[in-house]
Design goal:
19 strands, globular, about 425 residues, three-stranded mixed beta sheet, disordered N terminus
Length: about 425
């Protein structure tokens, strides 16, 4: 079994010796490099998830202050074709796009083009004069005026009152589904949903016409808020979102394989999309027919970017370095620190509330004990079970890239995946 996956780590030959018994007797009696057993255990655990059909494949990387502590690859880009994953494999980031767009907004704050207390309607007139659901059914709603405008702060913290179409079944969620207040994505879509929006401006217009679920600032509601921030980036910068991200984030960081589109030369590296089922996983999106091939697709900064493991690690490392990467400063350290400060709390995602800043979940002792996120870190994840965290105090960065959507009764798999990453990273960072 072990020869079906690749292992690359600072342990090098010592890991192969420990796990494959492929060294000669003199080498075999040499004391193994530190942390070899921990890396081997994590590798075997990931491989077992592939072998039992719970995971198509995964790349797990741990670094600290530029030193790579572990680099593990198991499984496949496409399970049926047995196309192996490698460092050129391109993954759908889904909501792991959100930290990138949140950084883009903070860059505009850094330049004085946007203020955190600005009303969103300053840039997007469709969001003026919003109304809030009070009672009634989807076809017979009673709404009241919003008590105040939605602000940039509200959008960054998901306290705007805007929901996602797939996060509940209230009359507001039903309205979103019926009237196509959504982008075209397999996440949370049903055949009964209305025709989705086909451009960012069209989606913002539909959000502006829809009722809010809560008053702005009332509570955290995971949502299209970051998608709306992408439209703010366009309005404030005068550039399309893809151009702004490329020129201001991807190019400076050397993220040459990150963007909204999959071109012909990258198609063979684009992973097949899967969803978890009771019996394992099933393919739901093929590379050749993916909307990532459509240059007219909606530029959703909240969930539509794709990237490689090494590309996203550069972005994560910049965050761990408080806005700087290889001598290039993208964002002031003061604003990065502000992004990592608690602004609100996520309730109902588990037994404990989770602190949330500007685009990031904030780990503490309770999240660490639950295996969700180490204390002192900031993190986010995507629907395809991509996940990363950084610790700006220690320089520790961990990242998991995979490509299976997990929901419903299978949601426990997400905790398994994430706990595995957290456990390995903390073991490798320990003295």
């Amino acid at each position: 079994m072990m020869n079906r996956f690749k292992i690359a780590s600072v342990a090098g030959a010592a890991l192969l010796c420990a796990t494959l018994a492929a060294c000669d007797s003199e080498q075999a009696t040499t004391a193994p490099a530190p942390k070899v057993a921990e890396i081997a255990e994590a590798t075997q655990s990931l491989q077992a998830l592939v072998d039992t059909g719970q995971l198509p494949g995964a790349i797990l990387i741990v670094e600290q202050k530029g030193k790579r502590l572990a680099d593990i690859t198991v499984g496949y880009q496409d399970v049926d074709k047995k196309t192996p994953l490698d460092k050129e494999s391109v993954f759908r980031l889904y909501s792991m796009s959100k930290p990138i767009t949140s950084v883009a907004i903070m860059m505009l704050v850094d330049r004085g083009l946007v203020r955190l207390d600005d009303p969103a309607s300053k840039f997007l007139p469709a969001l003026a004069d919003m109304r809030v659901y009070e009672s009634g059914t989807v076809d017979d709603m009673v709404t009241v005026p919003a008590e105040r405008p939605i602000t940039i702060h509200d959008l960054l913290t998901h306290t705007s009152g805007i929901p996602y179409h797939f996060t509940g079944n209230t009359p507001v969620h039903q309205y979103y589904r019926k009237h196509g207040v959504m982008r075209d994505t397999p996440v949370g879509r049903t055949p009964e949903d209305g025709e989705p929006a086909h451009s960012l401006s069209e989606l913002v217009d539909r959000i502006g016409a829809a009722p809010l679920l809560y008053q702005p600032g009332q509570k955290f509601e995971y949502s299209y808020s970051t998608t709306v921030l992408g439209a703010v980036v366009e309005a404030a910068s005068g550039q399309p979102l893809d151009v702004f991200l490329k020129e201001n984030i991807f190019d400076p960081l050397g993220m040459t394989h990150t963007g909204f589109f999959i071109e012909d030369d990258a198609l063979s590296h684009f992973v097949t999309g899967y969803a978890a089922t009771e019996g394992g996983i099933t393919a739901i999106e093929q590379p050749e027919t993916s909307d990532y091939r459509d240059h007219k697709r909606l530029l959703d900064g909240g969930g539509a970017l794709a990237s490689t493991a090494d590309d996203y690690l550069k972005f994560a490392t910049m965050l761990a370095n408080k806005g700087e990467y290889q001598g290039k400063r993208l964002l002031s350290s003061a604003l990065v620190e502000k992004m990592f400060m608690p602004q609100t709390r996520i309730e109902g995602w588990g037994p404990h509330a989770i602190k949330f800043g500007y685009g990031f979940a904030i780990g503490d002792a309770e999240t660490a004990a639950a295996g969700l996120q180490p204390d002192g870190t900031v993190s986010w994840s995507g629907s395809g079970n991509t996940y990363f965290f950084v610790n700006p105090d220690t320089g520790l960065v961990a990242e998991l890239m995979t490509h299976v959507i997990v929901g419903g009764k299978e949601q426990g798999r997400t905790v398994v995946f994430r706990s595995l990453v957290n456990k390995l990273a903390m073991e490798l960072a320990a003295p």
